[in-house]
Write a structure and sequence with these properties.
The chain has about 575 residues and is mostly helical. It folds into two domains: about 25-430, no CATH class; about 440-575, 2-Layer Sandwich (Transcription Regulator spoIIAA), CATH 3.30.750.24. It has helices at about 25-30, 35-60, 65-85, 100-110, 115-135, 150-170, 180-190, 200-215, 220-235, 240, 265-295, 305-320, 330-335, 345-360, 370-385, 385-395, 395-415, 415-435, 480-495, 515-530, 540-550, 550-555, 565-575; strands at about 90, 325, 440-445, 450-455, 465-470, 500-505, 530-535, 560. Strands 4-3-5-6-7-8 form a six-stranded mixed sheet. Strand 6 (about 500-505), helix 20 and strand 7 form a beta-alpha-beta unit. Helix 6 runs parallel beside helix 17 and helix 17 (about 395-415) runs antiparallel to helix 18.
């Protein structure tokens, strides 16, 4: 290990070229400082106190036996340490993915634990492949297509889904999962039928209260304290035998083995859809958390490499008896607060969990299921985003209602259909902004430089016989007809005959073949009205497209001006108009 002058780890953004840039972990090893070792090891041991109970709890919430939550912790942490670019990111089972995994596992496994593990493992492989391919082809921007209100909506829906799914376990009974709304009805019916175990309820509520109270203290392992207390109380007073409190039981001893999660071809379609949904949600969460901690640690993080690191972790989890994983917004702050310097913290945590699998499988035998449910519920509560929605309601009400629609989609139809609805709404929102963009006719305002929207400045002076028309969006198939319609409307409604219309094109960032052909037709229609079509401030890449579309011979190459002022001056000169700017 070399000793560097700086106290900061190597920045992933400055990795050398070649294959090494795909493996940031190797670069971290080559620049590792011995002075970080004590901090990383200590932080890793503290982190372990969360990895174990949380991993087991999220496995149960995902529809697979608890031991597989530890399997999905060990291998992914090691994989991400090698391929992930973030300095201290912690990956593992996550509450936001639980309803997505559960929806597929429940529908395909028919209560067969072995099949549930195979289905969940194949979902992890699908998610890993999607993330890796997206990273390789530099699709790291994809999650940015989901606006903040839409993300809030589906995450609030997922939070509610997770919370509802854990209520039966906290109360000591089980129900057939059939969607959040129907689950509420089943829960109420079960309580009325006397199925609730109030000792389990007391344990679960006590665990939840302790976790929530201690959550504000980053250096205190609240989850460990709460879960350890519940486990001790259950074992000491034999609550499982006396009061029928359901417990985890003994865990299998040993590390996960390499195993291909075989599933039938009939199940493949559902697994692929579920795996893609998991990939979207996990990378959305990971990219946001990665950006936050890259700022805190003053390091550059490539979002495409982040996708590859996340994909590698999921891919490895799938082949070592795990299930889909994501970044953790609860365990990562614990690692940071404990003094983590590099991904060695995650490696230490993974090794500590492996030691537990070898020598401490029976330590968790008396861990009550209601306490595990409390761990998941505490995380679900943290997923809710309500405060910022109030601000959105005040400043942009229609986006607030978009968020509500996404929330209801997840809450009513379930996690995966709800995510699909969120994506559809995001696409519609994106197209709507371009389909009906803002446009304006410009005039000269006394005392203000440049040309401005005459609707905002009714006193603006217009150039006689000239229309300056600004289009504030790319020109593409969805808005081409509106552009043509508005240009002709401005010409026909002008108070005096129009000689020329100049499209001020600085906001036009792109053009497609449909809108290019529209310009040809529009030029002909304007010529019939004896009106010329010219352009000002058009970007060179857009003009390059017009050349490629073979439109310069049709439109003319002398109708483009670098500035609006130059276009107006040329018009005044050609038409001998006496007008002072």
């Amino acid at each position: 290990m070399s000793i560097e002058a700086t106290d900061q780890p190597h920045k992933p953004g400055t990795l050398p070229g070649g294959w090494k840039r795909w493996v940031p972990g190797l670069q971290m090893i080559s620049t590792y400082k011995l002075s970080w070792l004590t901090s990383d090891v200590a932080a890793g041991l503290v982190l372990t106190t969360m990895l174990v109970p949380v991993g087991i709890a999220y496995a149960e919430a995902s529809g697979v036996p608890g031991i597989y939550g530890l399997y999905a912790t060990v291998i992914p942490l090691l994989a991400y340490a090698m391929f992930g670019p973030s300095r201290i990111m912690v990956l593992g089972p996550d509450s936001s993915l639980a309803p997505l995994i559960l929806a597929v596992v429940v529908s395909l496994s028919a209560n067969d634990p072995a099949k549930a593990v195979a289905v969940a493992g194949m979902m992890a492989i699908v998610s890993g492949i999607v993330c890796i391919m997206a990273g390789v082809f530099r699709f790291g921007f994809i999650t940015e297509l989901l606006s903040k209100p839409i993300r809030y909506g589906y995450m609030n829906g997922i939070a509610l889904t997770v919370l509802i799914s854990q209520l039966p376990k906290m109360m000591g009974f089980s129900i057939e999962s059939s969607g959040p709304v129907r689950n509420i009805i089943s829960i109420v019916q079960s309580i009325m039928d006397g199925k609730a175990n109030y000792t389990a309820v007391l344990i679960g509520l006590s665990t939840l209260v302790i976790i929530m109270v201690l959550k504000r203290y980053k250096r205190i392992p609240g989850i460990l304290i709460a879960v350890a207390g519940a486990t001790f109380a259950t074992g000491f007073w034999h609550l499982d035998q006396v009061y029928g409190v359901k417990v985890l039981g003994s865990l299998p001893q040993g590390l996960p083995s390499f195993r291909i999660p075989w599933i039938s071809m009939d199940d493949l379609q559902d697994v692929i859809i579920g795996g893609c949904a998991v990939a979207l949600v996990s990378f959305a969460d990971t990219s946001v958390l990665s950006r936050i901690y890259s700022v805190k640690t003053k390091t550059n993080v490539d979002p495409n490499q982040e996708m590859i690191g996340l994909g590698a972790a999921n891919f490895a989890a799938g082949f070592f008896q795990g299930f889909p994983i994501s970044s953790s917004s609860s365990r990562t702050p614990v690692a940071e607060a404990s003094g983590a310097k590099t991904q060695l913290t995650g490696v230490v945590g993974a090794l500590a969990v492996a030691v537990l699998l070898f020598f401490g499988a029976d330590l968790l035998r008396s861990l009550p299921n209601s306490a595990l449910a409390a761990v998941v519920i505490s995380s679900a509560i943290g997923l809710f985003e309500l405060g910022d929605l109030g601000r959105i309601f005040r400043v942009q009400r229609w986006e607030f209602w978009l968020s509500v629609v996404c929330f209801l989609g997840v809450a009513v139809f379930g996690a995966i259909p709800g995510i699909g609805l969120a994506i559809v709404i995001a696409v519609i929102e994106f197209l709507w902004d371009g389909w009906r963009p803002h446009y304006a006719v410009l005039g000269r305002v006394e005392g203000i430089r440049g040309y401005h929207d005459i609707k905002r400045y009714p006193q603006a002076r217009l150039v006689p016989g000239l229309i300056l028309f600004r289009w504030d969006a790319p020109l593409f198939f969805a808005n081409a007809a509106l552009f043509r319609e508005e240009v002709l409307k401005q010409v026909d409604s002008a108070p005096a005959p129009v000689n020329r219309i100049i499209v001020t094109s600085e906001p036009v960032t792109s053009i497609d073949i449909t809108s290019a052909d529209m310009l040809v037709d529009l030029k002909k229609e304007l010529e019939e009205k004896q009106v010329q079509l010219h352009f000002a401030e058009m970007k060179d890449p857009v003009k390059d497209k017009l050349k490629r579309f073979e439109l310069f011979p049709v439109l003319g190459s002398d109708i483009f001006y670098p500035t609006i002022g130059a276009a107006v001056d040329r018009y005044l000169e050609e038409f001998k108009v006496d007008w002072k700017p």
